[in-house]
Write a structure and sequence with these properties.
There is one protein chain. The chain has about 450 residues and is mainly β. It has helices spanning about 385-395, 420-425; strands spanning about 20, 30, 50-55, 70-75, 85-90, 110, 125-135, 140-150, 155-160, 165-170, 175, 180-185, 190, 200, 205-215, 240, 250-260, 260-265, 275-280, 285, 310-315, 320-325, 330, 350-355, 370-375, 400, 405-410, 415. The chain folds into two domains: about 85-110 and about 115-270 and about 280-290, Jelly Rolls (Sandwich), CATH 2.60.120; about 290-430, Jelly Rolls (Sandwich), CATH 2.60.120. It is built from two helices and 28 strands. Its EC number is 1.13.11.5. InterPro entries: HgmA_C, HgmA_N, Homogentis_dOase, RmlC-like_jellyroll, RmlC_Cupin_sf.
Length: about 450
């Protein structure tokens, strides 16, 4: 195995590869060796260090300038240098179009998944819960769980079907990508865009969490409108890795997901051999603790869209292929109102997960960290009986909602559960019982005055 001693960051050798450039959607330039980036043109006849230029485009060539996403990579080996693809079968990671077999308007909830089998890495430990749309038509999304007990060894992964939003719930991850290294832990997220090769190493003995596969338009920050300039997630808090590379001749297996199917090929080198890159199509991480929560100071719980971190929009304004929404620690301040999330039926379909603590609308204990719930289009849902009882009696003074971090994937399309979701042993068959102890308090003589 041949490996360079220089494996990190811009214009000088450093020992810690976990450095990041800040900003969302900006044009970045970074090099792991001095003068590796060409000046004045993208790919001169002879590049420094004998590197090869390669462009990675995440949008169509003629996309609007402010929407166009692409990066130039200056690497040791071109990506074309690989063996022919061979199909492989995956029975655990499913893709759209999804079967109608398990489609139901019923409210669903799941327990956390148990520890994974020994010697199970990030990719082999993925289980699909639900999804919608069609990977080959670039619309919709899929919801997965991951659970791993070992790092990816001598293999890497590339998803041609969509962006991957990784949400750790237990255990940290180190993610090597063609653009550099990312390190995330619970309360942080990472996005690995379509077509980017990566491998995942564990920072502890076990790791588990949630994974959203976005087939549709790339994630972006939501428009702020009347919120103004400073609310929700701010661009400066998103971090992109600096250039980092391996110069290795050790054989590597590349597993590729394409059109909902899996293919494998072999490389005679490390795919993480990009010495320099520039552009605006690159993986990134975000610390959910930096989210600037906007909440009510008068009455009523605001719509959940006020907590949107990232959105994959549809062409029709106001509809989303999928939104990523969080419910972080926050001050609960409101006057003369029912404070928890209200009961509602929604045209959007909602999958919720819990990273840590207790969700304020579900204090009864059935919604646990690592678990999840699904409320599809127009299925009624809301706070459980205990939350209702407390909310009608609690003195409405300012309160800090702490020890909590929940999230939601919200889509304009129906989420179709998988066989694993229905019969995989995690579903709580008594979920609807959490609302049965809500007793009517109607009194025609009580005018409320």
């Amino acid at each position: 195995m041949k490996k360079t001693k220089r494996q990190s960051a811009s214009k000088k050798e450093v020992t810690d590869p976990f450095h990041y450039m800040t900003g969302f959607g900006n044009h970045f330039s970074t090099e792991a060796l001095p003068n590796a980036l060409p000046v004045g043109q993208n790919s001169p006849q002879e590049l420094s260090y004998g590197l090869i230029a390669e462009q990675l485009s995440g949008t169509g060539f003629t996309a609007k300038r402010h929407e166009n996403q692409r990066s130039w990579l200056y690497r040791i080996h071109p990506s074309v240098k690989q063996s022919p693809y061979e199909p492989v079968v995956s029975e655990i990671w499913e893709s759209g179009p999804f079967s109608d077999t398990w489609l139901t308007p019923e409210r669903l909830r799941w327990n956390p998944q148990p520890p994974t089998e020994p010697r199970c890495d990030f990719i082999s430990g993925i289980r699909t819960v639900a999804g919608n749309g069609d990977a080959s038509m670039r619309q919709g999304s899929a919801i997965h769980l991951y659970s791993a007990s070992q790092s990816m060894e001598k293999r890497c992964f590339c998803n041609a079907d969509g962006d991957l939003l990784i949400i750790p719930q237990d255990g940290g991850l180190s993610i090597d990508t063609e653009f550099g290294r990312l390190q995330i832990k619970p309360t942080e997220i990472a996005v690995i865009q379509r077509g980017i090769k990566f491998r995942v190493s564990l920072l502890g003995p076990q790791a588990s969490g949630y994974l959203l596969e976005n087939y549709g338009n790339p994630f972006r920050l939501p428009d702020l409108g009347p919120i103004g300039a400073n609310g929700l997630a701010n661009p400066r808090d998103f971090n992109t890795p600096v250039a980092w590379f391996e110069d290795s001749n050790e054989p590597t297996q590349l597993l590729t997901k394409f059109g909902g199917h899996f293919f494998t090929c072999n490389l005679d080198h490390s795919p993480f051999d990009v010495v320099a890159w520039h552009g605006n199509y690159a993986p990134y991480k975000y610390d959910l603790k930096t989210f600037n929560t906007i909440n009510t100071v008068s009455f009523d719980h605001p719509d959940p869209s006020i907590f949107t971190v990232l959105t994959s929009p549809l062409d029709h304004e106001g509809l989303a292929n999928v939104d990523f929404v969080i419910f972080p620690p926050r001050w609960m301040v409101a006057e003369n109102t029912f404070r928890p999330p209200w009961f509602h039926r929604n045209i959007m379909s909602e999958y919720m997960g819990l990273i840590e603590g207790v969700y304020d609308a579900k204090p009864d204990g059935g919604f646990l960290p690592g678990g999840g719930s699904l409320h599809n289009c127009m299925s009624p849902h809301g706070p459980d009986g205990t939350a209702v009882e407390d909310a009608t009696k609690t003195k409405l003074t300012p309160q800090k909602q702490e020890n909590t971090l929940a999230f939601m994937f919200e889509s304009s399309f129906l989420y179709k559960p998988t066989a694993f979701a229905i019969n995989g042993g995690l579903r709580q068959e008594n979920y609807t019982d959490c609302w049965q102890n809500i007793s009517p308090t109607f009194d025609a003589a009580n005018t409320g005055k």
